[in-house]
Amino acid sequence: MRAPICVPSSIFSFLDVIYSISMDLFLIAAICFFIFLIAIFGFWIIFFLSYWTFFFGAGLNIAPKKIIRKMLKLAELRKGEILYDLGCGNGRILILGAKEFEAHGIGIEISPFCYLWSKFNVINNSLSGKVKIKFGNFFKTPISDADVITIFLSNRANKKLIPKFKKELKSGTRIVSYYWQIPGMIPEKVDKKAKIYMYRM
What we know:
By secondary structure, this protein is an alpha/beta fold. The chain has two domains: 9-55; 65-200, Rossmann fold. It is 45% helix and 16% strand. It contains five helices and seven strands. Strand 2, helix 4 (112-124) and strand 3 (131-135) form a beta-alpha-beta unit. Helix 2 crosses helix 3. It is elongated and about 90 Å long.
């Protein structure tokens, strides 16, 4: 009879180590893949919540603060006036208007993500008493008490707003549009370099 083959215990130990490392690597790869899937899913959720509003007016467009200041200065926004931002995004225009121009702000936002974002920013800046955010479609929300209206939408949305402006806004109301002009309306003031257009009803 042949003598049994003896395998050194060190080989088994080595195989155990290899197996343990392989399982650890597999677990790490599985976790990384799971995190990757969550990140991709989260990105598309945020993208959808932010940009599906394009079908109502425009996607999420955030104007730089220097542009916002120029918009509000061009509109001659004064203390105590009511400033509307149609599609208020993160509430930046309203917050700056309340802080630097002492105006009362009202934002209208249909995106749940942007609505909550702007609400948080208003609370975080301690402006709940001066700035209100409404959840809804600005095409269907009354704006007749506005003194100044800011819009950063699209050519299509601006054109669609014309009948609403003519029907609801009082004489003297100023409308400031960034980047896009309002088709069929002649601006009273223009900052060509910044692409800001101010109209008066």
